[in-house]
């Protein structure tokens, strides 16, 4: 049985009947057009609000050819890095008049291709993609569909794509030098998996810091561990061979390493110093102090969206590579005495989450 009392969506015609104005006048008033008097606009907008009117974005999209929607493809929202970055993207997108469709690829190229096709099927105007290894097929699919896109946080070695990244090499250099300046002579660089192009650049910065400090290259050890047990074994091995400083690819992995070391009775930072990357603690009030490499996430988000908008509006330029600078934030996990500054003693969790 079909219910006859089912709520009906409020239309422009309903508002016109209630206010006594034409549908065209109502439409222009709701768009805040200046050729409608302020008093009339305010009255119509008030009535529309009372009646629960919501603009039909699909109808507007059919008329304009644009949906004012962007697809954002991230690795996974369980990683606070993507949560923080997506918040920043959302803030900028809202300021520019865009809505977001957010998809998770799990850094799996097959799933990444599926979610990109889903985004394309939903008629997004453009895509911000945090690429994984094997993203070439995904990018070919986006190009074939004629959808503008920008790679975020990572770029491909071919450098044929628009991308917005942080200075991975310089950041890794600063992190490693921070450990060296704290007195560490043998340093490990730990990651859980290779990240497209970023791993290569951070490895380069890692070794550059060793060389510039006069330490032999063999004093820097690399390890890519795929699971907790492998990571635990690697950390034990490094302890036995005299590694006292640890640069970890990202903060989430750094805190995992801290947890594993503490479970083994290792005192941080006295017996093992640790520096991460992304400065998540500058945004979220996580209680385990961690030195980390910081870059301006809102700046990256704004650069990505503005570059994507320029492509959506047909701007013809060679592929753009925007690189945001990095700096080290010390919280004492490097092994040096650290007195928190006012700005890092109590993290402002609203910095990027307004």
Multimerization status: single chain
Cα end-to-end separation? 46 Å
Annotation, overall tally of beta strands: 12
Mean pLDDT figure = 88
Number of helices: 13
- Rg over CA atoms: 25 Å
The secondary structure category is alpha/beta
The parts where pLDDT drops under 50 for at least 5 residues are 341-354
* CATH homology superfamily of the largest domain: Response regulator
The main pleated sheet reads as: 6 strands, parallel
Q: How many structural domains does the protein architecture include? A: 3
What fold name stands as the CATH topology of the largest domain? Rossmann fold
Helical content class = 40-55%
Question: Could you say which overall geometry the principal axes of the C-alpha atoms support?
Answer: elongated
Cross-sheet strand order for the largest sheet: 2-1-3-4-5-11
CATH class of the largest domain: Alpha Beta
């Amino acid at each position: 049985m079909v219910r006859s009392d089912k709520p009906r969506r409020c239309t422009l015609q309903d508002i016109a009947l209630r206010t006594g104005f034409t549908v065209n006048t109502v439409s222009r008033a709701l768009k805040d057009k200046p050729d409608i008097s302020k008093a009339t606009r305010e009255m119509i907008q008030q009535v529309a609000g009372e009646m629960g009117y919501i603009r039909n974005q699909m109808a507007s999209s059919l008329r304009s050819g644009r949906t004012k929607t962007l697809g954002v493809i991230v690795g996974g929202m369980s990683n606070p890095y993507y949560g923080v970055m997506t918040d920043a993207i959302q803030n900028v997108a809202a300021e520019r008049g865009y809505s977001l469709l957010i998809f998770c690829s799990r850094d799996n190229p097959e799933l990444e291709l599926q979610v990109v096709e889903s985004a394309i099927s939903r008629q997004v105007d453009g895509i911000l993609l945090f690429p994984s290894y094997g993203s070439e097929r995904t990018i070919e699919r986006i190009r074939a569909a004629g959808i503008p896109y920008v790679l975020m946080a990572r770029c491909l070695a071919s450098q044929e794509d628009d991308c917005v990244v942080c200075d991975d090499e310089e950041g890794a250099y600063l992190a490693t030098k921070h450990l060296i300046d704290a007195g560490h002579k043998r340093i490990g660089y730990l990651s859980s998996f290779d990240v497209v192009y970023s791993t290569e650049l951070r490895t380069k910065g890692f070794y550059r810091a060793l060389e510039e400090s006069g330490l032999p290259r063999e004093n820097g050890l690399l390890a890519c561990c795929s699971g907790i047990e492998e990571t635990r074994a690697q950390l034990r091995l490094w302890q036995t061979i005299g590694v006292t400083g640890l640069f970890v690819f990202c903060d989430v992995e750094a805190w995992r390493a801290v947890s594993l070391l503490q479970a083994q009775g290792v005192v941080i930072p006295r017996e093992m110093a640790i520096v991460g990357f992304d400065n998540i603690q500058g945004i979220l009030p996580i209680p385990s102090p961690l030195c980390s490499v910081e870059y301006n996430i809102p700046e990256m988000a704004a650069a990505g969206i503005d570059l994507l908008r320029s492509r959506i509006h047909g701007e013809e330029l060679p592929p753009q590579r925007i690189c945001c600078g990095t700096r080290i934030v010390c919280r004492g996990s490097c092994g040096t005495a650290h007195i928190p500054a006012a700005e890092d003693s109590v993290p402002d969790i609203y910095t990027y989450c307004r």
